[in-house]
Amino acid sequence: xxxxxxxxxxxxxxxxxxxxxxxxxxxxxxxxxxxxxxxxxxxxxxxxxxxx
Length: 52
Fold this sequence. Notes:
Elements: H1 7-10, H2 27-48
Region (Disordered): 1-23
């Protein structure tokens, strides 16, 4: 049994995301964007709740 060569395992840039024309985010940009989305969701959730 021979092993099959899988390019993705040897070269992570072999295949890029399809349809994405923007450059990839840096770690800091991704973290900042994620934190902003979570803050927005938290604010929406707090707005839905009504004190009993």
